[in-house]
Amino acid sequence: KMRLNRFNEPLQDGAEKFGDTLIKATQFSDFRTLATLTYGDVPNGSSIVSSIEFARDSDYFAIAGVTKKIKIYDYLSVINNSVDVHYPVKEMSCTSKISCISWNSFHKTQMASSDYEGIITLWDAFSGDKTAVFQEHEKRCWSVDFNSVDPKLLVSGSDDAKVKIWSTETDHSEISIEARANVCCVKFSPTSRHHLAFGSADHCVHYYDLRNPKRHLGILKGHRKAVSYTKFLSGERVVSASTDSQLKLWDLEGCSCSRTFKGHANEKNFVGLATNGEYIACGSENNSVCVYYEGLSKLLLMHKFSSVKHLLVTRARGRDF
Fold this sequence. Notes:
The protein is mainly beta. Helices cover 10% and strands 41% of the residues.
């Protein structure tokens, strides 16, 4: 009989876990670039990308950032066309710099964005129309996320030290959690309507059950600087990124750190964090992307990007010949 944890996920014995880790750690050896996109419209202008998110079926993806625009691309069209410039299928203009975007996992056309003015906007991603605007945060809002279990719910976190729960069916927040420091990131559990984790400038990850929002389930301590991202690997595990150049894997059942990942450089910027439940990818301030496997602390892969200037020179030389 298969043993399950309290989240109904299978438990592995020691030998099985070692074998699985060995396979996963040696499965990949390098990256392959599929396409290169330019987010900015003005040469030499600021074009920092704050958020990249795939739609529910991974057939579209959106890019947003400081140019105050959300650009939506057709994934297959991008990777199958070997051209220098890829054009978005839809572009939405915002009134402020965008910090984060999130697709609704049930309603394919619905997207949320957060911005530097603290505004949460709901969009019809295919028509480009705004469908709702929430304006309760008092400072810059860093993060927004749709709930995967209840598609009506979304959460936001802000520099005003508040985490707010919204419903797409009302025009005001339903729950407000008071944090003690700036909230840098917030994420719903992928398996629950009620559970979420947020990272803060107090160097901690905070874990909550919305059925009792006045009291945390746990405060996960271990980072030395602000927590910039939190992502769930499963219902019982979350990974966090910090500007202390570390990622940490947390066991939510015991509210303890089970692994620390080191090998990338991150002391200043929000460099991104993504996971598929096993592999964890993040940016590095040496112009690289790094990948870890959840079962190993050591860096698994690193891909160094060429500079934009180098790419332009290479392309120009290619045209000469």
